[in-house]
Amino acid sequence: MQTLTQRLANPTRFMEISRAALPWVTAGAALFIAYAMYLVFFVAPPDYQQGETVKIMYIHVPSAWLAMMGYSIVAISSFGLLVFRHPLADVSAKAAAPIGAAFTLAALITGSLWGKPMWGTYWVWDARLTSVLILFFLYLGLIALRSSLDDEALAGKLTAVLALVGVAILPIIKFSVDWWNTLHQPSTAFTSTVDPSMRTPLLIAAIGFTLLFIALHLKGMQNEILRRRVKTLRLAEVERGERLFSARAE
Amino acid sequence: MDLGPHAAFIWASYAAFVAIVGALIGWTFFDGRRQAAALQDADRRGLKRRSEPGPKQDGA
Predict the structure, then answer these.
(1) Rounded to a whole number, what is the distance in Å from the CA of A81 to chain B's nearest CA?
(2) What CA–CA distance (Å, rounded) separates B15 from A141?
(3) pLDDT at B58 over 70
(4) What is the mean pLDDT of residues B13-40?
(5) How far apart are alpha carbons A11 and A15 in whole angstroms?
(6) Could you count the other beta carbons within 10 Å of the beta carbon of residue A115?
(7) Does residue A246 sit at the B interface (CB-CB below 8 Å)?
(8) Given a cut of 60, is residue B55 above it in pLDDT?
(9) Going from the N-terminus, what domains does chain A have, and what CATH number goes with each?
(10) What is the model's pLDDT at position A206?
(11) Structural contact between residues A32 and A207, judged by C-beta atoms closer than 8 angstroms
(12) DSSP H/E element including B36
C-alpha cells in the first residue's frame, strides 16, 4: 500500500494532478489579486500617520512572507531529498528557488521605496533589512551552485545541504524585530493594531500572491520534469549513436 | 486618484513589483514552452522513454 507521498512521487502522476490543478490555482490567484487591488486603491483608507504610502504595505508584506515561505519550501524539499530520497524533492527545491528569490527582491525594493518617505532613507543596516538581504544572497547562492554543476544528482545534494544550513536565517528574520532595536516596525501579521479596513485587503492580497506562488511553483516543477526527460532522451540518443559507431568499427 | 505627497514612491513600488512578478511569470511560461518544444522534437526523432509504449529505436 503506497503512502500519499509515495503516490505523489511519481512524476507522471504529478504532471496529471498539477495539469488539472494549475488553471484553478491560477484563476484563484487572479481573482484574489484583482479584488485586493480594488480594495487597496478604492476602499482602504489612508493611514493616520503614513497617509497613502501605507498602500505599499499590501505588496511589501506579502512579498516578505512569500520570500520566507519560498525558502521554507526549498528547505523542506531539501530535507525530503536527503532523508527520504523523494524523486520530486529536488525538482521542487529547484523550482522554488527562483520564485522565492524574486519575491525577496520585491520585498527589498518595495521596502526601500517605502522607507525613503517614511524613514528618510532607502536603506539602513537594520537587523530585519540586513537579514532579508542575506536571504536574497542565499537564494542566489543556491541558484548559482546548482547551475555550476552538470551532475544533476550531485547538484541536488549540494544545494540541499546548503539550503538546510541556511534555514537558520528564517528565525533570525522573523525575530529580528524582537531581538534587536530595529527601525523596522514589529511584525505586521494579524495583530489587533492593524485596523480591519486595512487587515482585510492585506489578507486578501496575501492569499492571492500565495496562490500565485503555488501556481508558479507547480508550473516550474512541470518545466523541470520536462527538462529532465529531454536530457534523458538526448543522453540515450548519444549512447545509442556511440554503440552503433563502435559496432560498425569492429 | 490622489495618493498624496509620496505618490511617486507608491507608483514606483507597484511598478517594481509588477516588473519583477511579471518577469517571473513570463520566464516560467516561456521556459515551459521551450521544454515542451524540445520534448516534441525528441519525439519527432523517434526517441522514446522506457515507460512509453511503441517500438524501441534499437529494435529491442
Answers:
(1) 23
(2) 27
(3) no
(4) 96
(5) 6
(6) 21
(7) no
(8) no
(9) 25-180+190-223 (1.20.120)
(10) 96
(11) yes
(12) helix B7-44
Give the pLDDT of residue A191. Answer: 60
Largest CA distance in chain B: 75
Decide if A52 and B10 are in contact by the 8 Å CB cutoff.
Answer: yes
> From CA B36, how far away is CA A226, in angstroms rounded?
7
What pLDDT does residue A89 have? 94
Which amino acid, B7? Answer: A
Phi, psi (5° rounding) for residue A44?
Answer: -60, 135
Q: What is the pLDDT of residue A179?
A: 86
CB B13 within 8 A of CB A59: yes
Instruction: Give the ipTM.
Output: 0.89
**Residue A182: per-residue pLDDT:** 79
For A35-62, b/e burial (b = at least 16 CB within 10 A) is ebbebbbeebeeeeebbbbbbbbbbbbb
Grid-cell match 526549498, residue found = A74
Which residue ranges in chain A fall short of pLDDT 70?
1-8, 187-192, 250
- The alpha-carbon radius of gyration of chain A (Å, integer) is 22
Note whether A55 contacts B: Cβ–Cβ < 8 A.
Answer: yes
3-class secondary structure for chain A? CCCHHHHCCCHHHHHHHHHHHHHHHHHHHHHHHHHHHHHHHHCCCCECCCEHHHHHHHHHHHHHHHHHHHHHHHHHHHHHHHHHCCCCHHHHHHHHHHHHHHHHHHHHHHHHHHHHHHHCCCCCCCHHHHHHHHHHHHHHHHHHHHHCCCCHHHHHHHHHHHHHHHCCHHHHHHHHHHHCCCCCCCCCCCCCCCCHHHHHHHHHHHHHHHHHHHHHHHHHHHHHHHHHHHHHHHHHHHHHHHHHHHHHHC
CB A55 within 8 A of CB A113: no
> Closest-CA residue in chain A for B47?
A233
DSSP letter (8 states) at residue A134: H
Looking at residue A206, its amino acid is A
A54 with A46: CB under 8 angstroms?
yes
In chain B, which residue's Cα lies nearest the Cα of A228?
B35
